[in-house]
Amino acid sequence: MGRLTQASLMVAAPAAADAVARASGLPGLNVGLHLVLVDGASLLGHARLPHITQADGRFSVDQAALGVKYFFSATARRELYAEIEAQFAAFAATGLELHHADAHKHFLLHPTIASMMIKVGRRYGLKRLRVPAEPPGIMKALGERVGFADYALYAWTRLLRWQARGMEMPDQVFGIKWSGHMTGERIERLLPLLPEGRSEIYFHPATVRDEVLAALMPDYEHVAEFEALLVPGCPLSRA
To answer: What is the pTM assigned to this prediction?
Structure first.
């Protein structure tokens, strides 16, 4: 502990109960809700969410198509609200303190999702939100190719900041451009360039890569990210 200060929980994931048990034994670890509304399992299932989930109760991997549904379909929005409510309630039932909330695939950047997430979250004591704002200028200085889409995404995060006004939010977040590849070497390059304010760096660490991880995230360097958090003398204090 010390370098990894917070983690996010997928309440409908197969190993959620095990994750809760582990987190409960780490009083210094802040845990938040990782809201899943795309490419993952729902809590309420297809019977209650027939317009936004597949027959197996999972959300589609087609984020754009779901985003259109969530914005234009009143029926889809009712189901979406119910699922968001269910996931916050499930987190509350774990007994863990709700430290923050974020969303799978950064789907909280969708204004409809953000609005519902904030409204429901406030009722469950939500006070912190991760805004996935990675400064393009910093990534460009690190030698990454930065294009219009990167600048547009960074600008779009201002809408989420406005929607979540009054909540605590990091000034910048790193891990988007290097998602799954936040290795020790990259951290060492990034740290001297961190701008003023509070920065969050996020990881997808694992001690081993099993068949599930290999199938879901075939190119991610999970073990290398885990090892990056264990580098002796590394000044990293937030993750």
So the answer is: 0.93
